[in-house]
Amino acid sequence: MTDIGVMRTDFEKDPSIKIRKVEMIPLHIPFATPFQIATARESSRDFLEVLILRLHTDQGIVGIGETQAWRRQGSAELLANLMHSIKTRFEPLLIGRSPFDINAIMYDLNATLYNSLYAQAAIGDALYDLVGKSLNVPVHALLGGKCRDRVRVGAVLSMKPNVEELVEAAQAFHDRGFRHFGLKIGIDSAADLRNAQALREAFGEDIVLRVDANAMMNFDAAVTLLRKLEPFDIDVAEQPIAIWDVDGLAALARAVAMPIMADESVSTDHSLLDIIRQRAATVVQTKTAKNGGIHYIRRLWHLAEAAGMRIYPGNHPSTSVATSAVAQMCAASPTPVMEGVFAVGVSGALADDIVENPIRPVDGEVPVPDGPGLGVTLDEEKLAKYRVEF
Q1: Measuring CA to CA, which of 70, 274, 282, 314 is 20 to 30 A from 26?
Q2: Left, alpha or beta for 144 (phi > 0: left; psi -120 to 50: alpha)?
Q3: H or E element, residue 208
């Protein structure tokens, strides 16, 4: 329980609390089975590169946050790079500061290293965790209060060697209560069509089916494939084309019947504003690491709501730490959010977790942790088991 420490029982800011140490824990956590996305130059991934950050205070309270080195379009991060940025650029801005000064701290971090959202995510979420523990309240209380106890989530269907294995994987999720599926596409269009058809035939209207090309298709191929997929009642097509081609994304949205989701194209609020202005998508996906954690993602959600967009709460595959961060935001949202894939790691993509009280989906829903801060406690044995050195 070392990452909880002493906790206050009132709801008053303690101006004396100060950050005294920044600790980083790089991890390689194995996937349950090799994880495949539509990245042309990469085969499947065998493990997830995670960075856990702990902010220690002079009062013994410790805040935790998570980010990942998840390389694909829009991210070139390495664990070593993340650690170097935090150590050399951010740590001097954190030592001696009050964790309650979240807005000022995050502003200073971004001013020092602009758009370093993957690194900032772990720090910002650790600050929220720290403040929640200091006040003995969950993070959702800091975000305006809880509007729901559980959040329905979706399952990611990683690419499989054949359609039979894909349907088998979907059936396993279905048996656990999942009804929303994200199908990876973008490498083999013929296989994509077979997979979509097989899933619709196997489950009928009992599931919501979405597709995700991870920004790896060109415009012509995307138009052709999405039009062929339309008979299979696809709820939304996620980021079919390159992140920089917002004009193309807007043209694609006009060319096909199914809604378009922007993911890799959205990093900051400025990029989301561009998507909104061009009506390039009607759905936006956010992710803890990609979008900088709770502090920045809440701004994106407010913009999306104002623009009438659906919000798809996502994550790179992650442990219960980042999963809880998104669950806390979903709990505090007074308006509906989609059945996102923010729990893909704890839903079975990862072979293990690193907390004493893992978040486990039940009947396709994630319970919102109610403990102080993020409500999860790091498992020291698991940290030692999966830690890597640089």
Answers
A1: 314
A2: left
A3: strand 208-212
Residue pair 206/232 in contact by the 8 Å Cβ criterion: no
Query: CA 88, CA 22: separation in Å to the nearest integer?
Result: 11
User: Does the residue 293 lie in any domain?
Assistant: yes
First to last CA, the chain: 27
Q: Do 194 and 316 share a domain, yes or no? A: yes
Residues 121-177 have pLDDT tens digits of 999 999 999 999 999 999 999 999 999 999 999 999 988 999 999 999 999 999 999
The SS3 of residue 51 is strand
CA distance 339 to 333: 13
Last residue in a domain, options 117, 136, 155? 136
**Residue 88 per-residue DSSP state:** I
CATH number of residue 102's parent domain: 3.30.390.10
**Would residue 387 count as lying in a domain?**
no
d(CA 92, CA 81): 17
Which residue, among 171, 168, 20, has the nearest Cα to 98 in the 3D structure? 20
Asked if 157 and 271 sit in the same domain, the reply is yes
Distance separating alpha carbons of residues 354 and 377, to the nearest angstrom: 9
Strands 45-57, 62-68: pairing kind: antiparallel
Helices (H), the chain: 79-85, 91-94, 102-112, 117-135, 139-142, 163-175, 189-203, 219-229, 246-255, 269-278, 294-306, 320-332, 380-386
Degrees to nearest 5, angle at CA 314 with 310 and 316: 155
pLDDT digits (tens, 9 = 90+) for 320-338: 999 999 999 999 999 999 9
* Strands lying side by side in the sheet with 208-212: 155-157, 180-184, 208-212, 234-238, 260-262, 283-287, 310-314
Cα(235)–Cα(130) distance, integer angstroms? 38
Does the pTM surpass 0.85? The reply is: yes
The answer to whether the beta carbons of residues 353 and 382 sit under 8 Å apart is yes
Is 201 within the bounds of a domain? yes
How crowded is the C-beta side of 289, counted as CA atoms within 13 Å? 30
CB 180 within 8 A of CB 206: no
Query: How many structural domains compose the chain?
Result: 2
Domain coverage including residue 245: 141-375
> Which token pair is 184?
């990876």
Give domain status of residue 88, yes or no: yes
